[in-house]
């Protein structure tokens, strides 16, 4: 940062010169917030298009949210960096509440895009400042409102297809371990529960759900049983193939970055009252899967 501040103080470094590199800067992953803010103060301006924003959000790209925060923190007019964004994405980026009028106009596709952008903005919000700010809470409220059955936005949310719900669950798992906004970290279990309660969630393929459970259990840092449990419960009522049972047994019994959480998940009660382990033991081919898992771990 010292080198960057020194460079930006040089008379030869003008806003026009910085802006020649604007798109290259946007493509750099993991730019520190302080660096982004320094460049914005020095005159950096770039248009973040809706296409760029949405594509990067669905990828979980580690970088674009810092520019959104830098522009909003510096009170740069929206016309200078977000002229192309639809109203709901402007609200999300600026940590303003998505209005009922905006919510009523949402389609399922726009809802999926809104949630993807909101996940990223909320996860990375305020890395170097007081985490318990109103803006940090509002970024999370925009997500929970869209997923809440009692809001205007839910009409479109309830129509999300299985592929969109699966993609959002994968994005949530990806961002969960990177979350630096403490408000969002606390909200992830509720968000996962809401996503898994959507009508299309039950249509996600069993193999995909098993993979999501495995990925969630390997998340570093902010993992909690409450985050993984809603995904695991999507398997209730399904008949697992032996390979899926084996993979889950390996996840729950084997070495992992979240061994304590895995131990706790074993005792989670599935619908019907059985523990996760008892439910797995009831699956066809469970005995063979248990033997295979034990051999793999030995």
Write down the oligomeric state. Answer: single chain
What is the rounded Rg? Answer: 22 Å
Major beta-sheet overview: none
Which parts are unreliable, with pLDDT below 50 for 5 consecutive residues or more? none
What is the residue-mean pLDDT, rounded to a whole number?
A: 85
The amount of beta strand, in percent, is under 5%
Please tell me what the overall shape is.
elongated
Classification by helices and strands: mainly alpha
Distance from first to last alpha carbon:
49 Å
Q: How many helix segments?
A: 19
The share of residues in helices is 55-70%
Element order: H for helix, E for strand: HHHHHHHHHHHHHHHHHHH
Number of domains: 2
Number of beta strands: 0
Describe the overall structure.
The protein has 298 residues and is mostly helical. The chain folds into 2 domains: 61-203, no CATH class; 205-298, no CATH class. The chain has helices at 2-8, 15-19, 22-26, 33-41, 50-59, 64-73, 87-93, 100-104, 108-124, 134-147, 154-157, 162-176, 182-196, 206-217, 225-233, 242-253, 259-265, 276-281, 286-297. The chain is elongated. It contains 19 helices and no strands.
Summarize the structure.
By secondary structure, the chain is mainly α.
Quickly list its features:
single chain; 298 residues; mainly alpha
